[in-house]
Amino acid sequence: MTITQEPTRATDPKLTLRQLLESDPPADAVTDRVALQRQGSVAVVTLSHPQAHNALAMASWQQLKSVFDGLAHDPTLRAVVIRGAGSKAFAAGADIKEFPRTRMTAADATRYNEFVAQTLRAVAAVPVPVIAAVHGLVVGGGCELSTACDVRIATAEARFGIPIGKLGVILGYTEADAAARLIGPAGLKYLLFSGELINAEDAQRLGLVQKIVPPRELATVTANLVAQICSQSAVTMRASKLVADMHGRALTAADTELLSRLSVEAYEGEDLKEGVAAFSEGRRPVFNQQEEN
Which runs of E-coded beta strand occur in 145-240? Predict the structure, then answer.
């Protein structure tokens, strides 16, 4: 398998983020069913195997991990959007056709689950906001992947579920923890016990979705949120993600050190000065690395 971490740039440098999100990636941008494109300081990661509803093969999980590992160390990055190609699905779960060689023994299943867990941890480790723009089927591994993101924007026709009881497989700890942090243990149990695919409104009530939009508005609403993120202080956005993710757990020494570093960067950096000056002058603040999207 060929792993490429260098982002594929949008072919037209004048292409807006909304326009990029409204079109599927070109074939030469896809590696192992995953495409990575850039629009300025924003990365767009696309699950790109629409003929199989973007089913996630083991190679897909490996490529996703490689992509997000690379993004985690990109100092120019301000936000990430992850989406699914085509009109039918964000991702319809695992690629069951490869089960006979990937998940039919306990040892193989352990290896597979670790790939999934590593990928979800890599998504969560990116220090900037990661937005899942989801439509259609958001099922199994697709649903689990969405829970590793910071915010989920869904179309009104999206359907969510983790119907693993129909396959006889077991949900890994990392996947379960990511979902339960959003919808609670009882909500996760309902999805697992019922095997039901719930609609976007029910997903929003559970806390799985933050905003529901008509299908034709998904790209616009997502691009607008990203523009808001990029217009604000980068250090504030990073710290906001960090402190929100710390909820419900004891702080580690690494947490404390990182918070201290961000505090110094915020209160001794230029963003605070610019923010206060802009407020006093009644104008929009212009922070370093701010870009139009």
Answer: 151-155, 159-161, 198-199, 211-213
- Cβ contacts of 17-23, under 8 Å, gap ≥ 24: 17/42, 17/44, 17/81, 17/223, 17/226, 17/227, 17/293, 18/219, 18/220, 18/222, 18/223, 19/219, 20/44, 21/81, 21/83, 21/133, 21/218, 21/219, 21/222, 21/223, 22/219
Task: List Cα–Cα distances, 181 to 69, 184, 239, in angstroms.
Answer: 23, 6, 19
Domain boundaries, the chain: 8-230, 233-281
- Tell me if 65 sits within 8 A of 118, measured CB to CB: yes
Fold of 8-230: 2-enoyl-CoA Hydratase; Chain A, domain 1 (3.90.226)
What are the backbone dihedrals phi and psi of residue 139, each rounded to the nearest 5 degrees, phi first?
-125, 145
The whole-model pTM stands at 0.90
* Best CA proximity match to 91, nearest among 123, 69, 125: 123
Dist. CA 288–CA 197, nearest whole Å: 43
The 10s digit of each residue's pLDDT in 220-277 is 999 999 999 999 999 999 999 999 998 887 888 888 888 888 888 888 888 888 888 8
Amino acid code (one letter) for 57: A
pLDDT band at 293 (very low <50, low <70, confident <90, very high): very low
Measured CA distances, 209 to 127, 179, 229, 230 (Å): 21, 12, 18, 22
CA pseudo-torsion sign 286, 290, 292, 293: negative
Give the tokens for residue 276: 């206060």
